[in-house]
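Human: Respectfully, please carefully check these C-alpha cells:
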Amino acid sequence: MLKRLTLSLFLMLFCAVPAYAASLIRDAEIEYALRKIAQPILQAAGMGSNRIRILVINDPSLNAFVADSRHVFVHSGLIMKLSRPEALQAVLAHEFAHIANGHLTLRASNLRAASTQGAIGLALAAAAALAGEGQAAGGLAAGTASTAQRVFFSHTRAEEASADQSALRYMARAGLDPDAMSDVLNLFRGQEALRPGRQDPYALTHPLSRDRLRAVKGFAASQGSAGGEASAETVYWFNRMDAKLKGFLRNANYVLRRKESKGNSETAILRRAIAYHRTPKPKKALSELERLLAMRPRDPFYHELRGQVLLESGNVGAAVQSYRNALALAPNEALIMRGLGRAYLAADSADANRAALSTLEKARTRDSGDPGMLRDLAVAHARVGQNGLASVATAERYAIIGRYKDAELHAKRASGALPRGSSGWLRAQDVLIAAKSAKTRRR
C-alpha cells in the first residue's frame, strides 16, 4: 500500500488525458521474465535487481523509454521483433544508462515546458504509483506524435552517445555480446529520412546516426571474444515471454499455423495452449496446459494460466483451485492474487466474496496502482456491505486512469459514508485534492 503522502503526490502530479491511449500488459509471468532478463545488466550497472521496474506497453510499434528513475517501459512490438535475448538486454542496458547517467534530472522542467495540459499523462502516473497501470483498462500515453511528448521523452544525440557507451560497458561487464546493440540500431536505419508520421517512436525519442552505429560496432569489435551469449536461463525466459506475447497478441489461427507452434517443445505447447484458448477451444487449451504442468508441476505461471482458461470458459470452481495452486507456489505475486480474487468474485457466494476481499486487499498492499485490481476490490467491498470503501477504491481507480470528474464524484460519496479521519476517508481526500489540482491545471 502506498503511504498517504506518496499517493497524494502521485494523484496531484499527473491529471491529463493522453493524446492516445495504449494499454499496459500486466502479466506475472512476463514481468518475472523481464526481471530475469534484466538481472545481469542491473548487476553490471551496480543498480540492484529490485531498483528498476520494467513494464510492457501493448503497442505494435518499436519503442522503449524511461519516465523516471525507477521505471522502464518497452513496447510489445519491440520485444517481439527482437530475435535474441541479448538484443533486448542491450535495449534495457541503454535505458538503464539514461537513469545512471542522470539524463532525467531535467525532466521536471521539461515536463512544465512541454506539457501545460499534462500531455504525458498516465505513463508518468503509472510510474509515480510505483506499480503501473492494470491490464487493458490502464491508459498510457507514450510514443505518440505529440510534440509535447516528443520533447519530454526525447534525448539529445550527446545523451544517446553517452547512454550507448555506458550500456556497452554494462554488456561487456556482464559477459554479453555488445554487438547485440547493433541488432537494435539496424532495425531503425533509415528512419530519420522518413516523415515524422511514418517513423517508429524510437527514432523520435532516440536520435539515430551513422556515427552512433559506427561507434557501437567499434566498441563491440574492440572487445574481441569478450562478448558471450546469454545464459540458458535468460534464453529460456526470453522464449517463454515471446511465446506468451505472440500467443495473446497475434491472430490465434496464424499462431497455430506457424512452424514455431508445431512439435513438442515447451514454447510450442505454450503457444498452442494460448491460441486454442483464444479460438476458443478450451478443451484443447487445457489439454496443452496439462502437458506443460506435467513438464513443470511447480511452475506458478502455468497454474495461473490454467486458472485463467478455466475462469474464462466458465469453470469457476476449478479456476479457484488453479489460482490457489499458483499463489501457493508464488505467494508474493500480486497479479496472481488479483486473478484469484477475480475467480472468487465469479463464484459469488458469501464465503467466496469474503475470500475475494481478503485476497484483493493483500494484492493492493503490493500493487496499489493497478486499476483492474481496484475495480475488483470495489466489487468485493460492495458485496460485503462496505459501500464507503467501495467508493474509495472506485475513486482511486478513476483517478489513476485520468477520469477525475468521476473520481471526484465517488470520493465525495466515500467522504460522506466513512468516519472522518479513517484510512478510507483520508484516501478519499487524496483523490479530492488530485481532482481539484486537475481542474486548476486545465484552466
